[in-house]
Amino acid sequence: MDFAFSAEQDALRTTARRYLTDRLPLSRVAELADSDAGWDVASWPELTALGWLDEELGPVDHAVVFEEAGYSLYPGPLFASLALARPAGYRGAEPATLAFADPGRPATLAGTAETTCRAERYGEGWRLTGRKTFVPDLLGAAHAVVLAAAEEGPGCWLVDLRAGGATLRPLSTRDRTRRLGELILSGTPATPVVPAAETARVFADVRRAARAALACEAVGVAQRCLDLALDHARNRKQFGRPIGSYQAIAHRLADVYTSVALARSLAYWASWCVAERDAAADSAAAAAGAAASDAAVLAAEAAVQTFGGAGFTWDSPLHRFYRRAQWIAAFDGGPRNQRAGIAAMLLD
What we know:
Elements: H1 7-23, H2 26-33, H3 43-50, H4 59-72, H5 78-85, E1 96-99, E2 118-122, E3 125-136, E4 143-150, E5 153-160, E6 166-170, E7 180-194, H6 199-235, E8 237-238, E9 241-242, H7 247-276, H8 281-307, H9 318-330, H10 334-347
Parallel strand pairs: 1-4
Antiparallel strand pairs: 2-3, 3-7, 4-5, 5-7, 6-7, 8-9
Helix pairs in contact: 1-4, 4-6, 4-7, 5-6, 6-7, 6-8, 6-9, 7-8, 8-9, 8-10
């Protein structure tokens, strides 16, 4: 069996790294993170032209894209569109997101039966009423797939966020490069995309896709933090020697390296399982999500400490990677819930 990426996927990685490095260097990412919009809207048609949003791309191709997006800390609705909205039934090239969490309830992809958002027939169409919170990249999206309950049970409806009838509010979050929002629906016109009979299966697919995608993104975040720390450790000198020659630095970065290597293997495995609908997809996605988010947090903390006082400053890019790592670690219940899920699969 060939476990290597194809030539086309290697070319996709090279192109993605070059585009993100040239178009969105870390200085530009910092500017966007501190701006009102939070991302460069003009980058979306460029991603479309590069083929990142093509329907032909599968989870393994997306693994390459998400890893590079994490490495460059891409600030835009790429994860929300490809790993949340698309598996939930969205078909389109415009940015989209998935609104699944209700206020006062756990913000996980498992709570589909408990939604308080209502869907009611209105003539030959549908109207939605309710609130959704912690919606990823809501203010950067043109459409939202909304989980709501009808007489038949919970399902998904597509809402055009630009057509009126929906109120979008920003939420204060730690990661300014991936913002959350609150969606208020008041008799908002909507189009059904997932019937009640398919909702549980579709959300299981969404959870696998989201965990695999975030695992790959976390690997990119961790690798960038490690690269920055290694470069500093090689060039920064104390007492006439590079600080990387001291065990306190070398051993810590070696631990990060092994964590990233393990996380990368698990992330690729999870992406392959999702693509092939393998029986191990649930456990693979959970294992990858837990290991990769832990690796990203570890790498960011180690990088900050390697840089010393400079690593704690606002001008350093490290705090932005640390924030993204924490965002990933908090998504859908975090590593603790993922490990609990693996234990349940093995023991129940």
